[in-house]
Amino acid sequence: MSQLPADLLSLISFLKKLPGVGSRTAERFAFEFLSWPQEDLASLAEIAKTLKERLPLCSLCGCLTERGGCFYCENKDRNKEHLCLIASAREAFSIEATRSYKGMYHVIEHLLSPLDGRYAATLNMDRIKKRIAENGVIEVILAFDSTLEGDATALYLKKQLSTEPNLKISRLAFGLPVGSSLEYIDGGTLSRALLGRQTF
């Protein structure tokens, strides 16, 4: 790899930041880019450059917006009494694909992971509780990965929200594989987990 041109090595190092992409795959992708027409490379660069400004996060729920509007918060047909807490905006799309949930979403800042410097103190509980109060939420669904970090976060949030009067706290029914990410779960399995959620 050390004999590769510096610019190619720089591209490879960026590609390796993608999840699941190791050195060999990143190198293969980099050489693939060299075969692309210049206009395609320019289009990709422009998309990457403006992606975050074109798709900002909703200031209320944290999901992606398009042209400044939030599909979930501005949709009057959504059930405001159900609030699904998720770890990233990406997971809203996975849940929506099941067509089993018509409530609201709320993206928390991160899953708890002390080893990575992500502590409970940095979770904005006041923001979550404010949404619960303003929308008259009767059920909070904790939809996190079935991992140590996901479990720790769910337990912490359950403890913090247990003081809310008449609030049901549930979690996805994990017929999901332990250690799995929601992104890779098929729609049928995720749909059954959502419908079979249990009080947590």
Keywords:
alpha/beta, 7 helices, Dna Topoisomerase Vi A Subunit, Chain: A, domain 2, elongated, Helicase, Ruva Protein, domain 3, five-stranded mixed beta sheet, 200 residues, 12% strand
Report the order of strands and helices: HHHEHEHEHEHE
Which fold name corresponds to the CATH topology of the largest domain?
Dna Topoisomerase Vi A Subunit, Chain: A, domain 2
**Strand percentage, roughly?**
5-15%
Number of domains: 2
Compute the CA-based radius of gyration: 20 Å
How many H/I helices? 7
**Helicity level, as a percent range?**
40-55%
Which ranges are low-confidence, i.e. pLDDT below 50, for 5 or more consecutive residues?
A: none
Instruction: Please tell me the overall pLDDT.
Output: 88
Task: Please write out the topology.
Blueprint: H1 6-15, H2 23-34, H3 38-54, E1 79-86, H4 90-96, E2 103-107, H5 125-135, E3 139-143, H6 148-161, E4 168-171, H7 187-195, E5 198-199
Parallel strand pairs: 1-2, 1-3, 3-4
Antiparallel strand pairs: 4-5
Helix pairs in contact: 1-2
